[in-house]
Amino acid sequence: MGSSIESDIPASGIGHRGGEVPGxxxxxxxxxxxxxxxxxxxxxxxxxxxxxxxxxxxxxMASVSLAVVLLILAPMAAIFFFYYLPxxxxxxxxxxxxxxxxxxxAPNQSAAAKGRLAVSGDKLAQLKRGEYSAVDGRELIALRxxxxxxxxxxxxxxxxxxxxLDDQFFLMRKFIDAAIRLKVDAVVDAxxxxxLHTYPEGLKMAEDLRERGIKxxxxxxxxxxxxxxxxxxEGLLIPVTNWRDSQYLDxxxxxxxxxxxxxxxxxxxxRIETFIAQFPRISVTAKTPRAMAGLAAQAIIAASSEKVxxxxxxxxxxxxxxxxxxxxxxxxxxxEVPTGTPPAIAAERARSLIxxxxxxxxxxxxxxxxxxxxxxxxxxxxxxxxxxxxxAKDLNRTVGNLQILTVPFSGRDIYARKLLGADR
Length: 424
Hints:
By secondary structure, the protein is of the alpha/beta class. The chain folds into three domains: 3-53, no CATH class; 79-303, no CATH class; 319-420, no CATH class. Helices cover 42% and strands 19% of the residues. The protein is built from 15 helices and 17 strands. It has helices at residues 41-50, 55-84, 86-97, 111-117, 121-128, 137-142, 157-160, 165-181, 191-196, 200-211, 260-269, 289-303, 343-358, 385-398, 411-420, and strands at residues 3-8, 32-37, 104-105, 132-136, 150-155, 186-189, 215-219, 235-243, 246-249, 257-259, 275-280, 319-320, 324-327, 330-336, 365-371, 402-404, 406-407. The strands form three sheets. Strands 3, 4, 5, 6, 7, 8, 9, 10, 11 and 17 form a ten-stranded mixed beta sheet that branches. 40% of the residues are buried.
């Protein structure tokens, strides 16, 4: 049965204390009102609240708020811990790549492309047993004794960050000389190292590696790498994102994603012998030393088999002009267009790059990768689609026979659109 509880509540206007009832025009005496209530928890909670004790609801609201904050922060903390914090992301990638095979060869690749990256005998056995090590450029310079097993030199963005171009060439030359001295098996380049090879000085370094049979692989994650394709790196490590009924390779924040089928068609058309190895964008961070080495190791294993004979060819005759390279009458260029650049100025920058490699000759074909600025950490400004279309019209009118390979989206842009359902 219920219990009888007395409550000092005004006759009208529950919750008004002091006896003044709104709209009454005066004061009324408090009335003793008896309520029959049950002992149920909801009723007690309501009575407590009516009597001014709101502690339970405050605790409940605080608990809910804390749970929501944790649900939001926990994934962000995990992403930062495993993908952005250098030490932990490197250790996480190393553990994954030594346990799980995430790299797969692109389908229908030629035997020539496989042979360029393939190894055999003891070298292949070492990779399959996981007997490989990764050394970054600065560590390699200081080494006096070569580590056992398969040795990778990894040139990550941090190795060359914040330096003038001449200083980058100076340090890169030291990296390459150390690689030759210590008989490194393969070099894995990220963006900055790959860019340097598109200049005459960097081309010479790539040729030196090729002469010694040292493989070069590139983390090829955006249109800013297009200019290095004519140099035929032995392997391309491509992060794959499924989007808009196709597959794209994309950088986390540079807006220069490339449709993978388009890239493969150009590689085939221009007879570029390079092995394409793909891995999921959402897997491991790709640009720490052990991550780069682990991805490269899996790519080399994928290219190698008893049926494939390792082949080493010199780099074809090219003209390297810095982010723009000419090969067999075709120009491959990578242009940077900062956010807010007017289309006419963006087109002029691209024309200048193309002319540096083409010289006085009209190029047979131009393949252009454009980096349309960068996107922010969490949200970003709308991608500059208008700049892309206007720039393409201008260049096709003045240069002719030109193909822009990039779309103005970064990995962050793409996944933000997926989460928001913007492409539905």
